[in-house]
Write a structure and sequence with these properties.
Blueprint (H helix, E strand, L loop, with lengths): L2 H21 L2 H9 L2 H7 L5 H12 L5 H6 L2 H8 L3 H6 L2 H10 L1 H14 L12 H21 L3
Helix pairs in contact: 1-4, 2-4, 3-4
């Protein structure tokens, strides 16, 4: 892929997230920050992909990346040190690090789920079911078979 294409796709993805965030109420965003609702949402076949993504981002806002903490990367440790005095009053760096590491496995699962689901998002933001994906594949195979019959070899 060319760089402009990648940049355009990233831009569209973040635009979609910002639109989803504007549609989600402030109370819901507060709820997303407090508890890992994204865990339940990614396992719910009726959950909205965009809203689940927002819930994930809101929960991890201001928290260190658990994968970086596990690898001992300095960036994650520096983020902990750069926290404001007030935020450190409410939660110590040690507590925040411990909480982040508790969600490390689910963090990995979510990123896998997001990558796996991105190609199967409907216009309303819901993720296609297995039956819908199978139907789409069946139709694509039929279409290709028709095209092979038309094109002489």
């Amino acid at each position: 892929m060319k760089k402009p294409t990648i940049i355009l796709l990233l831009l569209l993805f973040f635009l979609q997230l910002s639109i989803a965030q504007s549609q989600i109420g402030k109370e819901k965003l507060k709820e997303f920050r407090k508890s890992p609702k994204w865990k339940e949402m990614m396992n719910d076949p009726n959950a909205n992909f965009n809203e689940t993504n927002v819930a994930f981002k809101e929960f991890w806002k201001g928290k260190p990346n658990p994968l970086e903490l596990m690898e001992g990367e300095e960036e994650a440790l520096e983020e902990l040190e750069e926290r404001s005095f007030i935020s450190r009053l409410f939660k110590s760096n040690k507590t925040l690090k411990k909480e982040s590491l508790q969600h490390a496995e689910d963090f990995k699962k979510f990123n896998f789920w997001r990558i796996k689901s991105e190609g199967f998002i409907k216009s309303d933001g819901s993720v296609m079911t297995r039956d819908e994906i199978q139907e789409m594949v069946r139709q694509e195979l039929q279409s290709r078979q028709k095209n092979e019959k038309i094109i002489p070899q």
